[in-house]
């Protein structure tokens, strides 16, 4: 299934479109990643072994981008790695990323809690893009899978990532507890924030087979 989520413009924030990543997005993604390396990158699907420390450094070139993209497609096909490019609709180019998975693998919406991750391109930060994108994917996921199949979504960030902590709170993920480092999932101490599905949330008809 192809999921496309549109978000109207908000205060200082452009209108957004969230959809699976496409090959046409890779030049923009690579340009953004070149500014980030080696501090930040976008994780690859667990079956795709991109080089670099901690699987958290790419994609860095066209070859890695092709492998990374194949992993995102695989994630949608298997339903275990649901990732969205976040496009500025006026510019029609990707300015962010949101990823939903289970920490221990398996299909999202199989009864386990999910885990959400996100990134905004450096030149697009501070405009509410990550907050809107995370809130939108969260709302879609709870509506799509329902509370039984997706009871809650976890969000983890490093202790010193204050912007991410702020995004979590604003996007509906209150602080839950401290999280000690737990490699290979998480390499440093951090915060765990949790969003709970409302018990009334039931799966959308035909919409739960990602
Ligand atoms: C964290 C990140 C996704 C935020 O993206 P963004 O689109 O700029 O986020 P938003 O604009 O929605 O919100 C950012 C909030 O953090 C605040 N913020 C930014 N830098 C901050 C800092 N150093 N200290 C405290 N708050 C900070 C902003 O003021 C804003 O809050 P406000 O609306 O109350 O003013 C972005 O910085 C990023 O991609 N970082 C690298 C990857 C990353 O850390 N991903 C998250 C992994 S858990």
Please explain how this structure is put together.
With 210 residues, this protein is α+β, with helices and mostly antiparallel strands. It has one domain (5-196): Aminopeptidase (3-Layer(aba) Sandwich), CATH 3.40.630. It has four helices and eight strands. The chain has helices at residues 26-36, 62-78, 129-149, 162-170; strands at 5-7, 16-19, 81-88, 93-101, 114-120, 152-158, 175-179, 190-196. An eight-stranded mixed sheet has the order 1-2-3-4-5-6-8-7, with helices on both faces. A hairpin with an 8-residue loop joins strand 1 (5-7) and strand 2 (16-19). Helix 1 (26-36) crosses helix 2 (62-78). It is globular and about 45 Å long. It starts with a strand and ends in a 14-residue tail after the last strand. The chain binds coenzyme A. Residues 40, 117-120, 125-131, 157, 161-164, 166-167 line the site of coenzyme A (COA).
Short précis:
The protein contains 4 helices and 8 strands. The protein has 210 residues and is an alpha+beta fold.
Small molecules bound in the structure, each named once? coenzyme A
Ends: how far apart? 6 Å
Give the total of beta strands: 8
pLDDT average, as an integer?
91
Compute the gyration radius: what is it?
Answer: 16 Å
**What is the strand arrangement across the widest sheet?**
1-2-3-4-5-6-8-7
Oligomeric state as shown? single chain
Furnish the topology, listing elements before pairings.
Blueprint: E1 5-7, E2 16-19, H1 26-36, H2 62-78, E3 81-88, E4 93-101, E5 114-120, H3 129-149, E6 152-158, H4 162-170, E7 175-179, E8 190-196
Parallel strand pairs: 5-6
Antiparallel strand pairs: 1-2, 2-3, 3-4, 4-5, 6-8, 7-8
Helix pairs in contact: 1-2
Coenzyme A binds at residues 40, 117-120, 125-131, 157, 161-164, 166-167.
